[in-house]
Specification:
By secondary structure, this protein is α+β, with helices and mostly antiparallel strands. It is about 30% helix and about 20% strand. The chain is built from 17 helices and 18 strands. The chain has helices at about 1-15, 25-30, 45-50, 70-85, 150-160, 175-180, 190-195, 220-225, 260-270, 295, 335-345, 360-365, 370-380, 400-410, 460-475, 490-500, 500-515, and strands at about 40, 65, 90-95, 110, 135, 140-145, 165, 200-205, 210-215, 235-245, 250-260, 280-290, 320-330, 355-360, 390-395, 420-425, 440-450, 480-485. Strands 14-11-13-12-16-17-15-18 form an 8-stranded antiparallel beta sheet. Helix 1 packs across helix 2 (about 25-30), helix 14 (about 400-410) runs antiparallel to helix 15 (about 460-475) and helix 16 crosses helix 17. It starts with a helix and ends in a 27-residue tail after the last helix.
Length: about 550
């Protein structure tokens, strides 16, 4: 009876909504009965959730949502779809934080990798998680985690079991492990530790053939490095072995303002070139409009011992730049942190009287964006369209970018959300990964993290138009920027993104590990075959 109910639910969904159907409902029902302990859902709430993402401007409804209990279920689903040759699209979805439909599977199956989407084998779900361990081979601690685990949960787990934490982060922790490893995973620690993809020892991946492959730098390295930053094209990450380090207890969080862009970037680059103990642990920055600074500066950032005095900034108009750095410390070195910070700040060229500091627990600093999220949710300002644009810009052209974009296209207006800008050391990135970065040792992340708020001065269309202007400018001026979290509209655009040599490697890996082009079709890189009679990528 339950099987018949699912059949009619799927049939009704297809016939009334008009979704493209790569296989008939009876075949999908049969597939659903062959995938172990997971379950196939056509519940409207599941379909609605899987149809959208954080970007909020792209929707594509799947035929069904699959909730696996574990990696074996994921493999069974993909293997069944592959063996049928039906052209069924399969996409893994973590926290749904994609921007333009990358995790969507129109007319296909979305695999809900989140922990709430899994059925625990027993009531004590904690027993399913691996404890942190030490490896003499890598010379440090690690933890094995499920690919759909959120980084905030990884942090809480490792802190509770040994006082450990991952070394490299994203600014927002409510992202899935598999999701960030499929892109890169960057924040202000990347200059020293590299991105998150440089801090993983081993992966389990379910390929597009439904095969579960364990890979690392020495075992199946081609798949390992291909999947890191591989945009989900070669398989679904079901397990990752993450590098850990002892977690500090406290953070000194510091911000300083600049009106001179050249001095701002020179100081940032000086800071990411420092090594050993005499360095900051995190280096970022952002752009802010001077005219709105005094009223909009987040006073909660500052400590009572350091009152805000911004009256001297009234003479500055246009754009200001904020350097943001941190210094980690524990009880053992708390007495010397003031001296260390003063020494590091002593060589910098920020505006006098604009250094602001606060001290807070390490976890609170890492989870700072989530606290802002809760405030925005309370005001109804979180679930709105987010036409974000993230770029890697070569350091040699970052001043040109500043002039043309911050002072040109944006017209010194920075409203709508944060605009981050900070440098990264390329040598901390493994060139064997699939991520595309500029061909210079130092490049900048420039992230336009803007929201289309109701009744805001700039509409969604205006923000999207500015994004296109920025991309066109970079292309026409030969700036050499590369999209991070890329979104391209055609395969030629993707080929240009990768360049001839890297594209050939990427396409070869796709043909080998996902020859039916079933996985992560929402990226729009490889069009899936329309039916089973189409040749495999490996044949064509």
């Amino acid at each position: 009876m339950a099987r018949c109910l699912v059949f009619f639910q799927i049939y009704f969904l297809v016939s009334t909504v008009g979704l493209p159907l790569p296989l008939d409902p009876a075949e999908l029902l049969q597939l659903g009965g062959e995938v172990g302990g997971g379950w196939l859902s056509v519940d409207p709430a599941d379909l609605r959730e899987a149809s959208g993402d954080f970007g909020g401007f792209t929707r594509a409804e799947p035929l069904a949502v699959y909730h696996p209990r574990g990696a074996g279920d994921v493999a069974a689903l993909v293997r069944s779809a592959y063996s049928r040759g039906s052209g069924l699209r399969v996409s893994a979805r973590g926290h749904g934080h994609s921007i333009s439909g990358q995790a969507q599977a129109p007319g296909g199956v979305v695999v809900d990798m989140s922990r709430h989407g899994r059925r625990a084998a027993d009531e004590d779900e904690g027993r399913k998680r691996a404890l942190p361990a030490y490896s003499a081979a890598v010379g440090g601690h690690y933890v094995d985690v499920w690919g759909g685990e959120l980084w905030i949960d990884v942090l809480n787990w490792t802190l509770a079991h040994g006082g450990l934490a991952p070394r490299s982060w994203t600014d927002y922790l409510y992202l899935s492990v598999g999701g960030t490893l499929s892109n890169a995973g960057i924040s202000g620690q990347a200059f020293h530790h590299g991105p998150q993809i440089s801090n993983v020892y081993e992966l389990d991946i379910v390929t597009g053939k439904g095969e579960t492959v364990t890979c690392s730098e020495t075992t199946n390295p081609e798949l390992f490095f291909g999947a890191l930053g591989g945009l989900g094209q070669f398989g679904i990450i079901t397990r990752a072995r993450i590098a850990l380090e002892p977690a500090p207890r406290k953070v000194r969080w510091i911000r300083a303002l600049y009106s001179n862009f050249i001095q701002f970037t020179a100081d940032q680059e000086r800071l990411i070139g420092q090594h050993g103990g005499r360095r900051f642990d995190y280096v970022e920055g952002f752009v802010v409009a001077a005219e709105g600074l005094i009223n909009n500066w987040r006073s909660s950032f500052f400590s009572p011992q350091n009152p805000v005095k911004l009256s001297s900034l009234k003479q500055h108009t246009g754009v200001l730049y904020c350097l943001e750095v941190t210094k980690n410390y524990d009880d053992a070195n708390a007495a010397t942190v003031d001296q260390e910070v003063d020494a590091l700040l002593g060589d910098l060229n920020f505006l006098p009287g604009t250094v602001f500091t606060t001290d807070l627990p390490y976890v609170d600093f890492l989870d700072r964006v989530h606290k802002a999220e809760l405030k925005l949710r309370a005001k109804g300002m979180w679930e709105v369209p987010h036409p974000w644009l993230n770029l890697f810009v070569p350091a040699s052209r970052i001043a040109d970018f500043d002039s043309a974009v911050f002072h040109g296209i944006l017209g010194s207006r920075t409203s709508g959300g944060p605009i981050l800008i900070y440098p990264i050391n390329k040598h901390k990135w493994d060139p064997r990964s699939s991520v595309v970065t500029p061909d210079e040792e130092v490049f900048y992340l420039v992230a336009f993290l803007r929201s289309a708020l109701p009744d805001a001065p700039q509409s969604f269309d205006e923000l999207a138009r500015q994004n296109r202007q920025i991309l066109d400018l970079c292309a026409e001026a030969g700036i050499g920027a590369k999209q991070y979290l890329p979104s391209h509209k055609s395969q030629p655009d993707w080929e240009a993104h990768f360049g001839p040599e890297r594209w050939a490697r990427f396409a070869s890996l796709k043909a080998k590990y996902d020859p039916r082009a079933m996985l992560a079709t929402g990226q729009g890189i490889f069009p899936p075959p329309a039916d089973s009679s189409a040749p495999l990528l490996s044949d064509s």
